[in-house]
Design a protein that fits this description.
Layout: H1 8-35, H2 46-52, H3 67-75, E1 80-84, H4 91-104, E2 109-113, H5 116-130, E3 135-138, E4 143-144, E5 150-154, H6 155-166, E6 176-179, H7 191-200, E7 206-211, H8 217-228, E8 232-236, E9 248-250, E10 256-258, H9 268-291
Parallel strand pairs: 1-7, 1-8, 2-5, 2-6, 3-5, 6-7
Antiparallel strand pairs: 3-4, 9-10
Helix pairs in contact: 3-4, 6-7
Length: 292
């Protein structure tokens, strides 16, 4: 009979090293836990509870358009339409549903916005809604599917196409043009672009203008009728935002303070912080003047 001697010394050394590494790991973890500062739990103030109240995903329910949205769609059958409603109230839904109606009947539309970022966002939104083959984009940086029945682009690009049409180079074949953020007409530097786009758009093309900040909507509509020779209806949405805005300040100590108090004025704690910071800056300026 043959006996095989195991290397017991080698096995012992392996167990010893493994045990030592385990003890060192446990010691490091204990030291790390000991050095960590305990988490400070700050009780929520009444203002903070009100600030956070209702935030989250609302329960799912069937979509029901507001009366002003239905009224705007009905008016677009016969006239240009200017929609004034707060942000978040559903102005884009009106444009989307009218575009859907036109595309389903084999017609064409343009959707313009003043910003490239907003144009890119709407482009993706309409791709998701209508399909990539039906949507194109034209900006100073992008030109994709320019022969699509729905073109999303900046207002400057649309205005340039109108100039090209006047020169006989090409024709604007849209049946509807949506001018988002129509209040840019009053912009000192870029307002002329909206003015030229409105004046040069052929009367056969329906205009849908969207804005949250036009204060003189009826005067604006009368001017549109004068320069285009087409009646322009004014549709007004709800007076207040459906989704309220809440402002807060996140402090370096990770506290969240409501920007305004119950009376709608600046939070006193924030006001005191601003005052202390201004005093510190003034003292620093005085020291520099004394040393200089």
């Amino acid at each position: 009979m043959r006996f095989v001697r195991r290397n017991s010394r080698k096995s012992f050394d392996k167990r010893k090293n493994r045990d030592r590494r385990g003890h060192e790991k446990s010691a490091r973890k204990s030291t790390q836990v000991a050095n960590e500062r305990p988490t400070r739990v700050v009780p929520q103030s009444r203002e903070l509870k009100r600030l956070l109240e209702g935030i989250g995903t609302p329960p799912a329910r069937p979509f029901q358009p507001d009366p002003f949205q239905v009224e705007a769609l009905a008016a677009l059958e016969f006239e240009d339409v200017l929609v004034t409603a707060p942000t978040g109230s559903g102005k884009t839904w009106i444009a989307r549903e009218e575009i859907r109606r036109l595309l389903d009947s084999g017609r064409r539309a343009w959707y313009t916005s003043p910003l490239k970022a907003l144009t890119n966002s709407k482009y993706q939104e309409f791709i998701d809604e209508f399909g990539a083959e039906r949507v194109g984009i034209l900006t100073g940086d992008r030109k994709e599917h320019s022969d699509a029945p729905l073109i999303v682009g900046t207002t400057e690009i649309y205005r340039n196409q109108l100039f090209d049409s006047l020169r006989g180079w090409s024709e604007v074949t849209a049946d509807l043009v949506v001018l988002d953020e129509a209040h840019y007409l009053a912009d000192e530097e870029r307002g002329h672009v909206w003015e030229e786009a409105i004046i040069l758009t052929p009367p056969r093309i329906r205009l849908l203008l969207l804005s949250a900040t036009i204060g003189n909507a009826h005067e604006f509509a009368l001017w549109l009728e004068e320069v285009r020779g087409v009646r322009c209806g004014v549709i007004t949405g709800p007076a207040k935002r459906p989704v309220p805005l809440r402002s807060a300040v996140l402090l370096p100590d990770k506290r969240l303070l409501s920007l305004l108090n119950d009376a709608g004025k600046l939070n006193p704690e924030i006001a005191q912080m601003i005052e202390r910071e201004n005093e510190d800056r003034e003292r620093s300026r005085q020291r520099r003047r004394e040393w200089g």
